[in-house]
Design goal:
10-stranded mixed β-sheet, 21 strands, globular
Length: 532
Amino acid sequence: MRIGRRFFSVFIVAFSIGPLLSGCVTVPRQFERETSLALERTQTTSLGKICESYAPKHPGVSGFTLLNEGRSAFLARTALADLAERSLDVQYFIVKPDMTGSLLIERLIEAAGRGVRVRLLIDDLSAGGYGFSLSVLDAIPNIEVRIYNPFGKHLMPKLGRGLEFIGSFNRLNHRMHNKLFIADNQVALIGGRNIADSYFGVDASYNFRDFDLFSVGPVVPEFSESFDEFWSSSWAVPVRALYPSMPSANEIEEAYSRLQRYVAAHPEYPYKSLIKPSESLESVTQLCNELIWAPAAVACDSPGKSKEPGSQQIAAMLKEFIGKAQREIVIVTPYLVPSDPGILKERLNDFRSRGVAVKVLTNSLGSTDLVVTHTGYVKYRKLLVESGAEVHEMRPDAASRAIYTAQGGSASVMGLHGKAALVDRTFVFIGTFNFDQRSANINTEVGVLVDSPELAQTIASAVALDLHGQNSWRVSLASDCDPSLKDREGSRDLVWIAEEEGEKVCLAHEPAGRGRLLFRSLMGLFPIDSQL
């Protein structure tokens, strides 16, 4: 309790003086902006012609191809950037200035040079103050950059932004978690991946297991409508309103040269030799040949989402969608933080009474990139297991690193970042929504619900590999490992079941380092579940 009170006291002091110490906070409230919407009548573009060639055979439905590993996901983005002729609408929570981010920014600049209109919308939580200057990028002809919910300017950016976050918590805590890549209003990529090395399996130390959907058909204009709503909202501030001093032509040229030098200085990047504009059309055509066609609906939170009733559109849709399950529910989420143990227990008991099997794949303490979020999950873990749910936690040493990382990844840690829900092997939801309270109530999210047994089975087969004992631990009761413990002391303790060299292994203690266990215990003292 002393630790909790001391932390709380420091927080209150920082909250009180934060605005005084954070420097010059100047977020414009009134600014000029150009009105723009997704371009229509793009059927005559190369991408439009490809999509139109499939449309007569699949009237009124959309097509989807699962991008299950980083290589195909990266190449899909570069190919779409190469083939775009009229527009690229790009919306992300994170765009890092590493090789993956730099190569994709370079592709956007090249597209703009061909006359393609590029609209880039980035959340400011991770965008501020580094990488290829956003003001320089915005100054390039045919490119416009807007920042969602920006921080102010600070003399000391890191310190200032941190203190401003505390002092303006209610505003700055609201973030745009959406992730969309839309080319010519004909093809859209939707899923969990941000733009950074770790989301595409090329980071040396830590990589995410993630997935996207390559999407065509009627869902694409719906995604574009969502993008337009964010782009036109007061939450999206043009970079030129934040940095009114326009870069000179020499500054733009020098910044672009630095970007090119950085890219040239990393020939070891594993996908670099695969990026051939001459092969982009073939790549996209192949993805189109693999499309699974089905009815689908886009779900998107509003830019100003709040805790007001009716504003949590995706959370409400998922509650209804999952509640209708008759046979099986599979949930894949990196962060799992329910809102109420009573409601959770009631729903799990209802599923069990109706014979609905529940499977959950989430991060282990050893694999998660956010230990603090694990504090919200661990409080409910035993309830999930005792209520009959089959709970799996991603192993940081997952054997599947050989598939999901570019070079086998034996030295890197694997973490889960994919987000999906399957109901009765018929309905699929994929998007940016984590099954936690932050996604439900605070951050904005986007996703797609597809009615397709074929797509559901495709994703279920991909997830089945993640559930294997070499790739995840199954969290169970001790009596499942040692039947002799049944109805004896310790039979209700949790164990972690894995597979090593073809043999079943039961671990009596949570497999994680002491530092992570201690930090999670300390964070568990604070009532922060609503922020996780």
